[in-house]
Design a protein that fits this description.
The complex is a heterodimer.
Chain A lengths: L39 H9 L2 H7 L1 H8 L10 H4 L18 H14 L5 E6 L5 E7 L4 E6 L16 H10 L5 H21 L1 H11 L7 H8 L7 H20 L6 H13 L3 H16 L5 H13 L6 H16 L11 H13 L10 H10 L3 H13 L3 E6 L16 H17 L4 H17 L2 H5 L3 H24 L5 H51 L3
Helix pairs in contact in A: 1-3, 5-22, 7-8, 7-12, 9-10, 11-12, 13-15, 18-22, 19-21
Chain B lengths: L3 E6 L23 H18 L3 E7 L7 H12 L5 E8 L6 H9 L2 E6 L4 H7 L9 H14 L4 E6 L7 H11 L3 E6 L7 H23 L5 E2 H11 L15 E4 L4 E3 L16 E2 L3 E2 L1 H12 L19 H8 L7 H23 L3 H8 L3 H10 L1
Parallel strand pairs in B: 1-2, 1-8, 2-3, 3-4, 4-5, 5-6, 6-7
Antiparallel strand pairs in B: 8-9, 9-10, 10-11
Helix pairs in contact in B: 1-2, 6-7, 7-11, 8-11
Classes of the chains: A mainly alpha, B alpha/beta.
């Protein structure tokens, strides 16, 4: 028989288990213990095997019972989908609950769980965060994270591209006049290079801006240039003339307040360098015409700006403008703060209390406001960890969580309505003589006219000639329309009857779509509510409740 | 004691040559029909003596299917007895299983336990046939046949020192084959060392994650390593008389009719110090009591151990396999229990903390084993 070289060693310290032993009360008898979690196999068997077994088990109850209902924290880092890569378009993005709808569902969950939440609570335990709801008594709450309170650290910066540049621009607290000046120089150089590469196309690009066919001398002079390197100085002159034309048209300068118009003229007269002029002209229009939620703050900036005309030195003039612009653009990297009334109130206080050159040195209160209203990704991670360790129970619910996606049949319309619409339209078409065959013939005739001269062929022709061809094409198309209209069998009154029927069914479809969208939204809110309740049950279990 | 448990060792012969087999040399020594009849008479007389109407008959070997006709003969004999509830079990290596044979076994309600050590790499390390050929693929085929008839078929998986690091993968393989009742045991006769236990600890931790995953998915299964350790806490500890009735209400009959307290003592060469009688002459009461007392003796090397009430040091067969004596606690058991119980308790705590509903019912609902068995066999 084998002899083991190991020795028996009694163990003095062991891991103390927490799950109930035979000495504790059997948890089967706890009130919160759920019924037996029947397996899907059994449920399927019950639902297909006939009345007797259904009577015994009650299959609909079984499916509810079988739903895995363990306690766990559903609001994890992975679930939050942050940090995220921003997209500059939204057409493919799924529909989500609005923030107010999500918060409504979350509050409902807490209320149903018997927890009264205070609103807008600043909690400074371990991580300073402004919570959308918190109960000091029950030590539980939530913070809803969306674009209005997530700072830049939640965004994954792309390596390059337009988005990367935009993020870098937002990150920069200070926008230097020198940098804007440099951009104008680069822009001019780039434009001149494009002009040299393809003069025709470049001229066409400028012409596009002159949609009203106004008399823009700079355009005609540009056309007269040969397109050589030696013409750079002339080009630059025309460039600034063109900028002025664009500016006047886009900003409707003649409609601006007289003081602003005078100030623009003052800049034009005061400075010699056209590049510096352009930067400051743009600053002026930015400040005076920029949209803001805080009119008083805007007027304060405009007043300050107009005072610059009294400054004797040009350098002083430029430096003061620079400071003003930096202050105007300062928003701690958040677009939402630039429209936040309380934040703008603070800016107004600073503007009223200090000279313009020291405004950018007084941003501490703005930074504090930002800090107390925005969450950083690090703070969010801390909240997650505190939940895991049982130190703090704050549900960090992200707007990017898949829970927020309004799923299901968002525009679920009963098929019968579409069938009805189709049938009315078919009946109308047939009675009107506009059958499928007739309409196909009409379409083919129209196509033939369009294909005679395509856009590609026309664009290379002189304008007069292309315009003339286009006119002929339009006339021919109109003739086709009239020809087929004359073939219609129904009178206008008879057609109106059908149009009314089609309109009615369209209304029904829209109503059904609206109803299903509402239902889908309600289902999503319910789903969110259930997850929040799951979080609450988990947190209470961690707290020993 | 509410029933008798008798094991018929039908033959010493086996078509496999498993490296860890404790039954001795594989000789073609089978139980004769005469010994079978005497054994049946003996079992019935014991039932009468003890006033019992329930008996659990296990077919063992070697490989019992080598003597398959005798299995059905024994069953037919017991079926002739009125007022007797008989359940049949059999442990097999599966290589001789065919569809027809399985059909007949199923018809006669023989509950099977198939020996699979793990995925083919692991299985074929120790379970080769008499010709030295691997058997994993043949056993896999047998597994499918057996599961077709009874999805609740049990698997016995032996873990050796050289396969300890693949225990989790082996269990998962067995589960994926379709088995839901998995009994795992160590090869207690092997030369284990601390390095092997470090490996097995890692395997237990992997297995813990597997266990949690299956529980959270509401899967029905029994894994002895974990479920028995959890029960050692959730159920009242059995008294000595409730635990192993070796030699009293539980005994083995060797091919030549000798009586032994447990299957571990039935070998090709007789072990006179453990023989407690013969089917012809009955139990040797003095010997029976002597062995029983020895097995129940306190183990002084375990004094003061905080795990004593949950450890399986009471199993005399394992102690004998490991130490050569039924009175000495097995160090292999000691090392294993210390590692395993802690990991199992932590696993159970994770599930308890989440109030995993399946966990609560599995370990605290008395009806769980019936309902889950029904669910598995659906």
């Amino acid at each position: 028989m084998a002899k083991s070289p190991l020795r028996v060693k009694p163990v003095k310290n062991i891991y103390r288990a927490n799950y109930p032993s035979y000495l504790d009360k059997n948890p089967i008898y706890f009130p919160e213990t759920k019924p037996y979690p029947f397996s899907h196999k059994l449920i399927k068997w019950v639902s297909t095997s006939g009345l007797a077994s259904a009577l015994i088990f009650g299959s609909s109850d079984l499916s509810a019972q079988a739903h895995q209902d363990s306690l766990y924290n559903p609001f994890t880092l992975e679930r939050s989908q942050v940090p995220y890569t921003p997209v500059s378009f939204g057409t493919g993005a799924p529909t989500r609950l609005r923030s107010n709808e999500a918060i409504e569902a979350i509050r409902r969950a807490f209320k149903d769980s018997g927890i009264e939440l205070e609103r807008n609570v600043w909690l400074d335990k371990d991580v300073g965060v402004r919570l959308d709801g918190y109960s000091h008594q029950r030590n539980i709450g939530f913070v809803f994270m969306d674009h209005t309170n997530m700072d830049q650290s939640f965004i994954k910066r792309p390596k390059q591209g337009r988005m990367a540049r935009a993020m870098d621009a937002q990150q920069k607290i200070k926008r230097a006049f020198k940098e804007d000046l440099r951009h104008i120089h680069e822009n001019v150089d780039r434009s001149f290079q494009e002009f040299l590469n393809d003069k025709e196309q470049f001229v066409e690009g400028w012409s596009f801006y002159n949609r009203g066919n106004e008399d823009w001398d700079c355009l005609e002079e540009l056309k007269d240039l040969k397109g050589t390197q030696s013409e750079k100085e002339q080009f630059i002159k025309l460039f600034f003339q063109f900028e002025e034309k664009k500016r006047n048209r886009n900003y409707e300068i003649e409609k601006l307040d007289q003081k602003i118009q005078d100030f623009l003229k003052h800049i034009d007269v005061r400075l010699d360098d056209p590049f510096e002029k352009l930067v400051l002209l743009r600053y002026t229009l930015n400040i005076s015409k920029g949209r803001t939620a805080h009119e008083q703050y805007k007027q304060r900036l405009v007043r300050e700006m107009l005072e610059f005309s009294n400054l004797k030195s040009n350098q002083d003039f430029i430096d003061s403008f620079d400071m003003l612009m930096q202050f105007y653009l300062y928003n701690n990297g958040s677009y939402y703060l630039s429209q936040d009334l309380d934040y703008l109130d603070l800016k107004l206080e600073i503007a009223n209390a200090y000279p313009v050159k020291s405004w950018m040195k007084r941003t501490k209160r703005l930074d504090q406001y930002f800090d107390s209203n925005f969450l950083s990704f690090k703070e969010f991670q801390k909240i997650i960890k505190n939940n895991e360790k049982g130190k703090q129970f704050i549900a960090p619910i992200s707007h990017r969580d898949g829970l927020m996606i309004v799923g299901g049949n968002f525009y679920d319309v009963p098929l019968e309505l579409y069938e009805k619409q189709k049938s009315i339209y078919q009946e109308f078409s047939n009675k009107n003589g506009m059958t499928k065959e007739v309409l196909d013939k009409k379409r083919a005739e129209r196509q033939a006219i369009n294909m005679q001269y395509t856009w590609k062929q026309l664009k290379d022709l002189p304008k007069l000639e292309s315009d003339s061809i286009r006119q002929v094409q339009r006339k021919n198309l109109k003739n086709i329309e009239e020809k087929y209209k004359a073939m219609e069998l129904l009178s206008e009154e008879e057609k109106d009857v059908y149009y009314a029927k089609l309109k009615d069914v369209e209304e029904e479809i829209r109503a059904a779509q609206k109803k299903s969208a509402e239902q889908a939204k309600e289902n999503t809110m319910r789903r969110l509510e259930n997850e929040v309740k799951r979080y609450i049950r988990w947190a209470q279990a961690q707290m020993g409740g | 004691m509410s029933f008798l448990s008798a094991t018929f060792h039908l033959t010493h012969n086996c078509n496999l040559r498993c490296s860890y087999c404790y039954t001795g040399e594989k000789l073609p020594l089978a139980m004769t029909y005469e010994t079978i009849n005497e054994s049946i008479r003996f079992v019935l007389s014991e039932l009468d003596r003890l006033g019992l109407h329930k008996v659990d008959i296990t077919f063992f070997g070697g490989e019992p299917l080598i003597e398959k006709q005798k299995i059905f003969y024994i069953i037919s004999k017991f079926n002739e007895i009125a007022n007797l509830e008989v359940s049949y079990r059999m442990s097999t290596n599966g290589v001789l299983i065919t569809n027809d044979l399985m059909s007949k076994l199923y018809e006669n309600k023989v509950y099977l336990s198939l020996s699979i050590d793990g995925h083919p790499d692991v299985h074929d390390r120790h379970r080769l046939d008499a010709g030295g050929n691997p058997t994993a693929l043949r056993v896999e085929k047998a597994a499918q046949i057996m599961l077709n008839y009874n999805p609740a078929t049990n698997v016995t998986c032996v873990v050796s020192p050289d396969t300890a690091n693949q225990l989790a993968e082996s269990v998962d393989y067995i589960y994926e084959l379709g088995f839901r009742y998995i009994t795992t045991t160590l090869d207690y006769s092997a030369e284990w060392n601390e390095g092997h236990f470090k490996e097995i600890e890692k395997s237990y931790k992997k297995l813990a994650k597997w266990y949690i995953g299956k529980m959270e998915s509401n899967e029905r299964f029994y894994l002895s390593f974990f479920d028995e350790r959890i029960r050692s806490r959730t159920l009242k500890p059995l008294q000595a008389s409730e635990r192993c009735q070796m030699g009293i209400s539980q005994f083995s009959i060797s091919p030549n009719g000798e009586l032994y307290p447990c299957i571990q003592f039935v070998k090709t060469d007789s072990l006179p110090e453990f023989m407690i009688g013969h089917v012809r002459t009955g139990f040797d009461a003095a010997c029976q009591q002597h062995i029983h007392r020895k097995s129940e003796k306190e183990k002084p090397e375990c004094a003061g151990c905080q795990m004593e009430s949950r450890c399986s040091k009471w199993c005399s067969c394992i102690n004998y396999m490991s130490t050569g004596s039924i009175e000495k606690a097995s160090p292999i058991v000691c090392y294993n229990e210390k590692i395993l119980i802690e990991i199992v308790d932590k696993t159970a705590d994770i599930l308890w903390k989440k109030r995993n509903n399946h966990f609560v019912h599995k370990h605290y609902n008395n009806d769980y084993h019936i309902i889950s068995h029904f669910e598995i066999t659906l």
